[in-house]
Predict the 3D structure of the following.
Amino acid sequence: MNFMERERKGELGKRRNRKLKYLEEKYRVKSKGIKTVIEELKQRMIAKSAKIKRYEERITQFRQNRMFYIDQKKIYTELNNGGKKSSDVPDAENSRRFWSDIWSTNKQHNREAQWLKELQNESRIENQQEVVEISLEKVTNQCKKIPNWKAPGKDGVQGY
């Protein structure tokens, strides 16, 4: 409990120390009132904490930008919660019941739907793919174009 609140409650009585007098003069307690001064100080604390939070966010942003140019893999793992995976394991019985409810129910789709007929017509029209020759030189050139630390496809292998 600070001096001003103790004064307001009357706990200090006539014994005022130098610190209390200094605070009364600094914040003009007699002219504003103790409740107003306390509210002003609370608002100042809120403003200071918001300023500190913005500063910390800015520092984090600058650090992450620097890290992106230095070590991309490290920034990606940091942005993904430090590479930690969720340890929540779903209940096996609930999962089994969920999927069995979906797959055990027989549903018939509309075999006469217009979009199915269009899809069948399109598949008939398309020709076979031409023969593609793959050489070591072509593969090397394409690998050079892949950005570092990006997975090029479903295999998930990162290129460097």
User: Anything to note?
Assistant: DSSP finds eight helices and no strands in the chain.
